[in-house]
Automatic annotation (TrEMBL):
It holds the Pfam family Phage_GPA. GO terms for biological process: DNA replication. GO terms for molecular function: endonuclease activity; hydrolase activity. Residues 575-610 are annotated as: Disordered. Possible endonuclease which induces a single-strand cut and initiates DNA replication. Belongs to the phage GPA family. Residues 580-591 have a biased composition (Polar residues). Residues 108-424 form the Replication gene A protein-like domain. It comes from Phytobacter ursingii. This is Replication protein.
Amino acid sequence: MFAALLHARKVLSLQPECVRFDISRTAAMLEQNQGSQRANAFLISFCKKALPRLELVAKKYECAGINSNVSATVFGGHFDTRLMQYLASRMVNMVARYNRLPDMSRADIDLLAADIANFIRAELAEHDDADSDLGELATLHGWYMRAGLMALQFGVTPPHWAGLTTKYFDQDKAAPAIMRMFSDVWWRGRLRRVAASWREHLQIAIGNVSKKKHAYASKNCVTDWREQKRRTREFLKGLELEDEDGNRISLIEKYDGSVANPAIRRCELMTRIRGFENICNELGYVGEFYTLTAPSKYHATTKAGYRNGKWNGASPSDTQTYLTSLWARIRAKLHREEIRIFGIRVAEPHHDGTPHWHMLMFMLPEDVERVRNIIRDYAWEEDRHELRSDKAKKARFHAEAIDPEKGSATGYVAKYISKNIDGYALDGETDDESGELLKESAPAVSAWAARWHIRQFQFIGGAPVTVYRELRRLADTDTAHGLSVEFAAVHDAADAGDWAGYVNAQGGAFVRRDDLQVRTLYEPRTGFNQYGEETVCIRGVYDSAVGAGTPILTRLKQWKIVPKRAVDLAVDVKGAPAPSRSSVNNCTGSESDPPELDLSKPLSRSERRKLTARLRDKKRVTRRDFVHGTDKQSAAIDRTIDEIQLTTGETISRGEALHLIAGGKSCINGKWCRGSSTGEIFPAAPSHRAQARQILNRVAGLAAKQHRDDI
């Protein structure tokens, strides 16, 4: 047992801090309450049962080393020069830091993102001159492949990777993709997302996301989600929208009045599904309620809350991908069978975070049995050997006919919509999965969807909701009626909130996008985004029969986001010379600009108090103690100065040498040099700003030339 305990402690020490902290705290509590023997048994059991699960998660995220294709592309397959050895050491350092993502703070993640972006920029700049003799398309292709392979090294799929590497290589897509891959802002978002998913996946692996601990999402995940919502609101409160005339409106008020508001989002979803039900009744269709669940290997925890031995390490995102591909094959089969259905799909989590789908579908009565059989066959196809009992088959796929005598079709999904948004009108109701109150579990479900980027609601069939929203913005009824009778019918239905009337006026529940009566008008913006891409914005709507040349604009003003104007704050106290508009002083003093005091005459009691308070608030300026370098650093500085003298003929100061041994680089006598901690000097590419400017100019030049050729 002693050897097993030592092994367990060694294994635990190698796990991320977010895992070690939780396990160590549990062991400490067991030791305090039940003795050391019970705590040791817990550690041994953890090593035996949880370690294989943690290894499954690690395989999905960790980098085992430098990939062979990166080694061949970046280093040429050899490390026999000091420069190649230095670049390899940088790459190894970044890989090691990447493997610590679950424990890294936001600041550390941002530093890693900047280092990766700088490394890619340097590589592109190094090979810029080497590729100058190639054609423009070949140059862009080489840059994209080189940057893309380095992105794959860190578990990030390059933009448009599947299309640009297996299909036609489009310059218009490749150039912005390259610019993204040497942008630290782009890398920052990708690495933050990987770190958050990795942490939550580890919590699922050790059982912290279950009905026995925290259902749907871990405690830290919900806390992070709440904090992000708070930060977003505080950020929006400090901003305003300003038009061309200088008129301003509050950004937070517009945010609360949009579908970003959970209450408005829920009402719109209920309106749309109620409209679908009305169309179903008009057409003589019937409703069916389906539930799709993934096979056992996608579930980390059993229904009772214990570890599932069949789990393959899949994340909720992996399970959502499986369900999406499953539904794609089902839709293709229904299309081949010429069966038409429409409705809504709701994705929600099991208690361990594994998603499952609820679907409300409307179809012809004679198609009900065929649709059930098709969905059942595809749902049972994977791991069919598990379905030995009726209970197991029902868990994988369950169909229930909508009985109008028991309730409307909208009533079937109303609970699921409310549960997955804000828990509205669910006071006192408990969750079947976790046993908690639905009102209290709603934030955990929202945090789960945000963490794994899962689309919770999706409508199948019908007309686009974007046109519906734009028509509701249009208050000029006379203009709508003057365009065409068909356009007026679509507008009137949308303006009245009649989703069924809107869908029917657009062409019905099965209308093709090319056959819509009213469509959205998009126009390109005047400028490009930071990646050199042309962006488009919605300007209005138009009648397809009349043509896009005669649109109705719903967005007449161009708004931009600006900071709020600073409010003039004054300091005043009762009895001061400045008059107050009220009987008491309600103003908060400005610490940065205190009122001036006339010291040429005796101070009053209130003025003395203000002066004393000001003196006490003055922070004493402290100077950091100077930290002398070690003998090793001094030797490295001396060696750096000598190396620079031999290489460039210039003598640099010790401060410049210190900058070089810290990993910096400088241009000395026209030569770019990079130092190391041992005092060695290597030739280096120009600074990252110069590299970025050079690459940006060349990418922009290639894009401009391509645009001229197209014209």
